[in-house]
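Hello,

Following up on my earlier ticket. Below are the two sequence lines again, exactly as submitted.
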Amino acid sequence: MKLKAKAHTYNKAHINTDEIIPARYLNTDDEEELAKHAMEDIDANFVDNVKVGDVIVAAQDFGCGSSREHAIWALRGAGIRAVIAGSFARIFFRNGINNGFILIECQDASKKVSTGDELEIDLDGGTIKNLTKEEEYSFASFPPFVLEMLSCKGLLNKITKLGDTNDKS
Amino acid sequence: MNKNMTITEKILAAHSGRKHLVPGDIVDATIDIFMGHDVTTPAAISMLEERGIESVFDKDKIVLVPDHFVPNKDIKSAELAKRLRDFASKHDIKNYYEVGRNGVCHAILPEKGFVLPGTTIVCPDSHTCTHGALGAFSTGIGSTDAAAVLATGKLWFKIPESMKFIVEGDLPECVYSKDIILEIIRDIGVDGALYRAMEFCGSIIDDLSIEARMTITNMAIEAGGKSGIIAADKKTDDYLKGRTNKRYTPVFSDDGANYVEVREYDVTTLEPMVAAPHLPSNSKPAGKYKDVKIDQVVLGSCTNGRIEDLRIAANIMKGNCVAKNTRMLVIPASTDIWRQAMKEGLFDIFAESGAGISIPTCGPCLGGHMGVLANGERCVATTNRNFVGRMGHPKSEVYLASPATAAASAIAGKIADPREYI
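Thanks for your patience. The regenerated structure is below:
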């Protein structure tokens, strides 16, 4: 699978789930509502700048802190298709896999991609082409377990074998 | 191949029908206890309903505790709490703890005897690592995970590498388990144990009470850990007496088990620590922040809201007043703790000093309610996170500390070293 996407880059390490979706908005789990406040405390213009299909490129330990899956839902609801980071915090990473949401660990991209860069991501080949900077970065391809989760579009589809019912994007 | 396993590998092997596991293996493990609260479990309930899943795996292994935004802070959170309550009622879940009988879920679970050595525990809350203090494998999950567990009683896990922390020395006066874990996180960083099981041992850990141990395992997530764990001992057995009739089999790491890293700490010269904004790893001895004025102090949470914590703080508050321009909130972590504190006269001490006493709630720890901070306000809290906007306005600040340091700071109206107040 290949994705073409525009990058929104955040160089700060340890962007936590309180920043991705502040707890003051956790009195709902409605994805559309949450999406209005995605990344609000770190970038007040984020929601206005994102177009459907864009990706976030971040530094290490993205998504640390609270287990709130609302962080994945808020980003997905805002139109974000994937997050590329130096590394991910464990529960956020798990939540991504369980939702069939694409999370890519790639140090090279994490350090070199700038906001606005056009990327072409090849999930099967494990490469990210930076069309703006004419660079290419590689990442370790997903293990079979994650690929299966992505193809089922999430954990609940996998265990209930209901197929394509959980993709809200 | 090394056949020896860590406590974490052994518990997960026993729960997934495997003889041997190594880090990186992915297993489906059976879950002994699922706990849910009002913020993240309603979403799981909706997922089950959307799929027409009408039954739960075992109603007696489900514990539901509204705690984050209760007593209901607004209409939307009232609806969340109602979804949790209705689910408990629909499935006849006896282990539902209503306001007035509840507490912060991570205080309730061990207090009511649900946490047993050698078991597996999950909850869609990152501080689920707390329960490793009794020798259980206990970890935070998401809402989708929660739906999967509620439906099947099983969950996938990637076996984590284990990291051992040996804590030795003599614990100085006014230095507590909170200071130890803040020092460990300072040392390894907020992702220093990313994906790993953090196993704590050594003579200092042996000497700590079960409650004090919980403060350490509670903050494993603040170093990125998948879990924190302390092998059960006689103190664990004593703690469980009268709380459970269930039999349990403690699990211990094998000699020669594989650790990706072993770190040793001597706490003899450790000082009361304070973690400054905006990361739990950003700590220094309290004395280094002496001139930092504060607006609020919060004593409570799953990290430090237990009876010992209230006793330590009350001992310092006794005969003193909260500073004129500072407010102090005391939030016992459970109803039983609240009643015990009242019986012991601790509320008189807090009230006489000018502190406010609340019923149990997570409330201010995550900027929910009951103590949200305004633009530019500073708080010393016995909680676990000091991220940007964690307790309210994005330009407010949280300093993490022990109950002793929090109490001393309330009296001083600025960050204070508790050794100067005893």
